[in-house]
Amino acid sequence: MEIRKAVIPAAGLGTRFLPVTKSMPKEMLPIIDKPVIQYVVEEAIDAGIDDIIIISGRGKRAIEDYFDAAPELEMRLSYQHKEETLSRLKKITDFPGIHYIRQKEPRGLGDAILRAEKHIGNEPFAVLLGDDIIANSYSCTGQLMSIFSRFNASVISIEPVPPEKVSSYGIIKGKAIEPDLFAIEDIIEKPAISLAPSNLGAVGRYIFVPEIFDCLKNTSPGVGNEIQLTDAIRLLLKEHPVYGYKFKGKRYDTGDKLGYIETIIDYALQDPQLQENLKKFLVDRLN
Ligand code: UTP
Fold first, then answer.
1. Which residue in 213, 251, 253 sits closest to 233, CA to CA?
2. CB of 15 sitting under 6 A from ligand 1
3. What does the pLDDT look like over 223-270, one tens digit per residue?
4. What are phi and psi of 179, to 5 degrees?
5. Which of 27, 85, 91, 220 has minimal Cβ neighbours within 10 Å of its Cβ?
6. Rounded Cα gap, residues 11 and 240, in angstroms
7. Given the CA of residue 17, which atom of ligand 1 is nearest to it?
8. What CA dihedral angle connects 34, 37, 43 and 45, to 10 degrees?
9. Are both 73 and 199 inside the same structural domain?
């Protein structure tokens, strides 16, 4: 079965980024001149998704406004013959398939995904976290879809995490069945390093069979009193196979302050208009 729909949870409080996230969604933080969530939406579209559900919440209106049309602005740019800016703007607003569902309270990532159940229905779907950018010419979502098409089973993106970060991730226990591909046997949310079954952490891209919704409904609040997606995946594992794939690409956790700064620097260093002067500036500062 083809994956046509994606859920992008973006209703979290972004407490690591307070105070700026008090009135601005962390998914709207700019990477130079594009907000984080635009990279995520573009990845889904590149992978062939034509129906995107953004989970939004209180204080997140800026996301809806961003993807909405801006006729006055478009008219002004057209009048001023700023064709390039206009076409960049229209690229954002022309995609018809973005819908919004509100999560009334930020009760956790698992709860956010469960809000999309009615819209997804009984078909497999992708999840892309709204604050994670994964850069690669072959999108991470596309890579997971190709695993899904072979095994017809849920698959999550994983990457090795350093020991000091293990307790911030869902860590998998799995059996390697191919290079970079694991049949997951268990997954533990934010384990102490001494209890971690591996160093492979689940990161921001997933493909799920629709049975995940029943598992989410049967998941009680866990770590942080939130409905944890990891706990629902554990339930799913009891009846359905779940694979972990060490994706190809570079992941940027923009919800983390250092991760955010690294993202901006990397993207600026790839920008032909910025790279030379930025390199000079960085060398100068480091000296
Ligand atoms: P995070 O755990 O990184 O987001 O969730 P957070 O809770 O906002 O961050 P901190 O720890 O307080 O800084 C990953 C993604 O899931 C969404 C977030 O918006 C983010 O894009 N999320 C999280 C929801 O949609 N709802 C929630 O209840 C929690």
1. 213
2. yes
3. 888 999 999 999 999 999 999 999 999 999 999 999 999 999 999 999
4. -55, 130
5. 220
6. 28
7. 13
8. -100
9. yes
- Clarify whether residues 248 and 272 are in a common domain: no
The CATH number assigned to the domain holding 36 equals 3.90.550.10
14 close to ligand 1 (CB < 6 Angstrom): yes
Going by alpha carbons, the residue nearest to atom 23 of ligand 1 is 12
Domain that holds residue 235: 5-255
Our mutation pick for probing the ligand 1 site, out of 38, 113, 131, counting the most ligand atoms within 8 A of Cβ, is 131
User: Are both 236 and 166 inside the same structural domain?
Assistant: yes
Residues 181 and 39 in one domain: yes
Radius of gyration of the chain (CA): 19
Total residues belonging to the chain: 287
**What's the structural domain count of the chain?**
2
Query: Helices 36-46 & 140-151, crossing angle to 10 degrees?
Result: 40
Q: pTM for the full model? A: 0.95
